[in-house]
Design goal:
Length: about 270
């Protein structure tokens, strides 16, 4: 499952999770290393929150470390373990990729939101200038909200089950991007050019729709971040109403390229 034989030169990409048994990142990255002929191996490590600080202190001395990937529940806490946080990760206040510099410094970034934008653009769906509705302000949703503002949407409406979280996020974004009208909203998709579902609704059979699908208008880009199932009930409803359905997988595949670039492994 590696790019080739593991030798003393092979760099190690560690993906930190808790628990780790469900993650697909080692398979995804080892396949990418193989395809690109990169002499690196990806492994998942299960680290509990109380052990994160000690791990990060020790990791600074790991000279053939190829980089660190981060997922639930560590993305926010690990930002405080980095020596520098760059790009949108500073606003999002969460990190999902870390590069170790030759002097041991750890530089963190976040590719979740920018991966979503790149995934859209790769399919020829540019969010710039569109009125956008985002439903859900969890880890994925927050990152996408910042990235949509950064991409220059014409308006950003944020809906969330717990409305106070949408209001807080809208106020934070408005203070950094005063040129983007951003506000908390109901999840009504009528009149939007881009509608994004960043809730888990659609992962399990019998889930309610995350928004009133009868209000979807033809031509609207309806994007999921759920990867499994690949065609959620929302995407099915969107297609049947003449919308453009954008699945969750491109967000992940775009991030692989961005992470390899950031880690200077590419
Ligand atoms: N494609 C990718 O690369 C990618 C990346 C990240 C995540 N994801 C996927 O995105 C989904 C969300 O992940 P996450 O990490 O952002 O989750 P999360 O942090 O747990 O956030 C969940 C969000 O959905 C809302 N929500 C949860 N249950 C709901 C319900 N029954 N009705 C209405 N709203 C509900 C929550 O609202 P409250 O604030 O009210 O709790 C919150 O805003 C998951 O399916 C995950 O696998 C995909």
């Amino acid at each position: 499952m590696t790019a080739g034989e593991i030798t003393g030169n092979t760099r190690v990409y560690v993906h930190i999770a808790h628990p780790s048994s469900h993650v697909r990142t080692p398979q995804t990255f080892n396949a990418a290393f193989r395809e690109r002929g990169i002499d690196a191996v990806a492994v998942s490590i299960d680290v509990a929150p109380e052990d994160l600080h000690a791990l990060m202190a020790g990791i600074r001395g790991w000279r053939n470390l190829g980089g660190i990937g981060v997922t639930i529940p560590h993305k926010q806490a690990i930002a405080h373990e980095c020596d520098e946080v760059v790009g949108l990760a500073r606003q999002i206040k969460a990190v999902n990729a870390i590069r170790r510099e030759p002097d041991g410094r750890l530089i963190g970034t976040n590719t979740d939101g920018s991966g979503f934008i790149q995934g859209l653009r790769r399919e020829g769906r540019d969010p710039t200038g569109l009125r956008a509705l985002l439903v859900g302000t969890g880890g994925g949703g927050r990152s996408i909200a910042w990235a949509l503002a950064d991409a220059g949407v014409a308006e950003l409406a944020i809906a969330n089950r717990t409305r106070a979280r949408a209001e807080e996020l809208a106020a934070e974004i408005a203070s950094v991007y005063p040129g983007v009208p951003v506000h908390a909203a109901d999840p009504d998709p009528a009149g939007f050019g881009l509608v994004v579902n960043a809730t888990p609704l659609g992962m399990h059979e019998g889930d309610p729709q995350p928004l009133p699908v009868e209000r979807l208008e033809p031509g609207t880009i309806v994007a999921e971040i759920i990867m499994s199932p690949p065609r959620t009930p929302l995407l099915a409803a969107a297609e049947s109403r003449g919308c453009v359905a954008h699945p969750g997988l491109p967000m992940l595949t775009s991030q692989v390229d961005m992470v390899l670039d950031f880690l200077r492994l590419a």
